[in-house]
TrEMBL record:
The name this protein goes by in its record: Universal stress protein
Family note: Belongs to the universal stress protein A family.
Domain UspA residues, every copy: 4-136, 150-288
Organism: Streptomyces graminofaciens
Xref: Pfam families: Usp
Lineage summary: Bacteria, Bacillati, Actinomycetota, Actinomycetes, Kitasatosporales
PANTHER family: ADENINE NUCLEOTIDE ALPHA HYDROLASES-LIKE SUPERFAMILY PROTEIN
Source taxon at top rank: Bacteria
Length: 290
C-alpha cells in the first residue's frame, strides 16, 4: 500500500492555519508528505461580482499561500496542494480516506458547540474512516515540549481500543513522548451482577484491580511494539470524559476513540469524544473504532 500523507484542510481562518502548522510539524516528525487541501464549491450570489473562474482562482491562490507558510518553516518537507471541488463534507471525508490523518481547525471554546453539532466538522468526524485531529487557533507549538504526554482513553477489551492505542503509541514514538493510558470505571447497576461476572471480579480481587488488569492487557501488545515509549497506567473511578479531562492539563495531545451514534436527526459522536473536544485545550485526535 502506498505511503499515506498527513492531510490538512485550510480555508484561510486562523484555526485552519494553526491546523496546517500542526500538520506540518507532524509530517516532519513522521517523515511523511504533507497534503494541503481546500474544499471549494461554486456559490453564485448577487452581491458577489467574481465569477466562477475567479472564485476558483482565489481558492488556488489562497491554498498556495498557505502552503508557502509551511515550506518556509520546513524547507525539506514535501508538500502538495489541491483544491477539491464539491460539498465540504464529502470532499473532506474523501480526502481523509486517502490520508494517514486528516487535520482540521477547531473554532475554540466559544463556538465549539456550533463546530460539533450539525456542522461540517462533526459530520467529517462521524464519517471519516481515518483519524481526525482538531487543532485550535491558539495552539502553541511549545505545548509539544518534552515532559508533556500523549493521553489516550482506553475502554472495553484489547480489540475495542486497538486502533486508538496504535495511534497514541505511534504519535508518542515519533515525538519522543510518553503515553498516559486512561481507563475510567463506574460501579455497575445491581442487575448487571451475575455469577459469571462475580467470579471474574473475585478472581481479580475486586472492581479496581479488575479494571487495572484490563488496561494492562490492552496495553501489553503496544508496550512490546514500542518499548522506547514510557507508559503510565491511569485507572480512576468516574465518567470517562471527566477522568480524561482531569489529566488534560499535562497533555500535548488527547486521543479518544469514536463510536458514532445514529439518531433520527443524524449521526452524532459519543459523549466522551464530545466532552473532550468541548473542553480540552490541546489538540484532540478522534480515532474511529467501529
Amino acid at each position: 500500500m502506498p505511503t499515506r500523507a498527513i492531510t490538512a484542510a485550510v480555508d484561510g481562518t486562523p484555526e485552519s492555519l494553526a491546523a496546517l502548522a500542526w500538520a506540518g510539524r507532524e509530517a516532519v516528525r513522521r517523515g511523511l508528505e504533507l497534503r494541503v487541501v481546500h474544499a471549494w464549491q461554486w456559490q453564485p450570489h448577487a452581491a458577489i461580482t467574481v465569477d466562477r473562474d475567479g472564485q476558483a482562482q482565489w481558492a488556488r491562490d489562497s491554498l498556495a499561500e498557505a502552503a508557502r507558510t509551511v515550506t518556509g518553516r520546513h524547507p525539506d518537507l514535501q508538500v502538495s496542494t489541491e483544491v477539491l471541488e464539491g460539498g465540504p463534507v464529502a470532499t473532506l471525508v474523501g480526502a481523509a480516506a486517502e490520508a494517514e490523518t486528516l487535520v482540521l481547525g477547531s473554532r475554540g471554546h466559544g463556538a465549539v458547540v456550533g463546530f460539533l453539532v450539525g456542522s461540517v466538522g462533526q459530520q467529517v468526524i462521524v464519517e471519516s474512516t481515518r483519524p481526525v485531529v482538531l487543532v485550535r487557533a491558539e495552539d502553541d507549538p511549545a505545548g509539544e515540549a518534552a515532559g508533556r504526554e500523549v493521553v489516550v482513553g482506553q475502554q472495553g477489551g484489547p480489540e475495542d481500543s486497538a486502533e486508538t492505542l496504535r495511534f497514541a503509541f505511534e504519535t508518542a514514538a515519533a515525538r519522543g513522548a510518553s503515553v498516559r493510558a486512561v481507563r475510567a470505571w463506574t460501579l455497575p447497576p445491581v442487575y448487571a451482577y451475575s455469577p459469571a461476572s462475580m467470579k471474574l471480579l473475585d478472581d481479580a480481587g475486586g472492581l479496581e484491580p479488575y479494571e487495572k488488569n484490563a488496561l494492562a492487557d490492552a496495553l501489553e501488545p503496544w508496550r512490546e511494539r514500542f518499548p522506547q515509549v514510557p507508559v503510565t497506567q491511569h485507572v480512576e473511578m468516574g465518567s470517562a470524559g471527566q477522568v480524561l479531562l482531569s489529566v488534560a492539563g499535562r497533555a500535548q495531545l488527547m486521543v479518544v476513540g469514536r463510536r458514532a451514534r445514529r439518531t433520527a436527526v443524524g449521526a452524532r459522536i459519543g459523549s466522551v469524544a464530545h466532552g473532550v473536544l468541548h473542553h480540552a485545550h490541546c489538540p484532540v485526535a478522534v480515532v474511529p473504532h467501529d
